[in-house]
Permease (Fastidiosipila sanguinis), 165 residues
Amino acid sequence: MGFIDILKELFANGAGIALLGGVLAAASGGWGSAVAVARVGKTSMGVLAEDPALYGKALIMQALPATQGIYGLLVWFMVMLQAGFLNNNYADLSLHSGVLMFLGCLPSVIVLMPSSIQQAQVASAGVQLLLRRPEEQSKALVMTAMVETYAIFALLISVLVILFV
């Protein structure tokens, strides 16, 4: 079976459109997290050049924007499970259900990348704060986590829509 035949089979029902939504959610979260973690890592390197003892605290700040990648992967997995890809029953998914799953993925597709990149900006500022006032790490963590709230909302909406299609 060729590539075109596989695409025809996927898009003959709702499976292809559902899969597209899940893949876009995973890509959005992964891409945004990769960019975000790199940005905080660059800032951390400058701080660690001045005070290597801050490595553990800087690493925690760098890890925070990585969660959006996990959220995107979770949305993809939910689509794979609910659409029937994991048990090879994807041919049974109606076009209506596939479109609804795709629409359910959109909050994650739209929110995960920018939220991780914006979270990286706050986390980078938090890493710089650690250099001057290491005892203020909890404040930097809370402010960085505030940006996470919107990624969690997007994840929640996506998962609930996918589950109830």
Q: What stands out?
A: Residues 2 and 75 are 28 Å apart (CA to CA). The chain has a mean pLDDT of 95.
